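>> received
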Amino acid sequence: MKHRIVVLGAGYAGTNAAGRLARRLHPDDVEITLVNADDDFVERIRLHQLATGQAMRHRPLADALAGTAVRLRTARVTAVDTELRTVRLTDGEINYDTLVYALGSTAARVTGPAHHVASRPAAERLSARLRELTAGSTVLVVGGGLTGIEATTEIAEARPDLHVALAVRGGLGDWLSDKARRHLRRAVTRLAITVHEHTDVERADETGALTTTGERIPADVTVWTAGFATHPIAAETSLRVAATGQIVVDATMRSVSHPEVYAVGDAALAEGPGGKPLRMSCASGGPMAWQAADAIAARLTGRRVPHVPIRYYAQCISLGRHDGIIQMVTADDRAKPSAVVGGPAARVKELICAGAAWGIYHPTVMLPTRRRRLAEPVQASAQAPSSF
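>> returned
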């Protein structure tokens, strides 16, 4: 029987993993199933654009998987049984011999009503709410990381008739180089954004947000971008997970507690350069997916397991459609003095975003097909011992 590989989640990490596995393993020996709640590939790094009413192209996953022999199953994951090697879905269940867990993350929990841009439905709800606002209304974005900065500047540029504010726990862009930080401050001034620095927001309500010091920041709409949280499914299994709910993996993205399970993207806690965990980002998700797929293929075909250390090169920040920052960073993601800013940075960021989606649909250009046979027949039984 064929060795069953199930990939959960079709974001950047999951789709990359499924496509790469299909090009590394012979379809006569393996059955690869990609499970996703939606039948579209969602460009999550563009959701702040969708929130301001910009059109986002629909990208059917069936088109991305055409010719790969990967099966798409459109269903929501409700539970994973790591003892029986079974995934429960809204429309039934599916068994696996090897599992790639790529369910990603959602917005961190916030007390009170607040919007976010961590999913397409959420971005669409925010878009609808912004359309309801009349001139002079106030929008508050909570969280000064990459997502918060991009959402704030996008809203301010698209709706100059609104009062847009940003609440930052530390200093605005305090992790950036001097050049990038100066440019960021010029951008928020140009867009008339009010910045509340060194402000820790405790909760949101219908009239704005309350800080930990008791200060109230009024707002007609609050957008929460202060961090991400993993889905609780992994924590409900016997997998070893971190306090964040992420699955703890080794350098090949293999679970340290269950060798038949791999985790990639935001769902995985993997050590990066300098011993620091890889951050939740598209920049980490793709390389993690490649690492996992190549390790799975190598182990199943009896080859040496490759390991290419994952490192960072730059942080890309859009500041609306025509401005941006490309902050060069060290391997462990610390800012270097050099940065590209302004229009050139916006064009580079757009090329990176477009290239990430293009790569999902044209994987053979970047990765030639070399489908190898398994080293030995693998028994496909839900209760069979690991084949590794």
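>> The chain has two domains: 3-104+231-310, 120-224.
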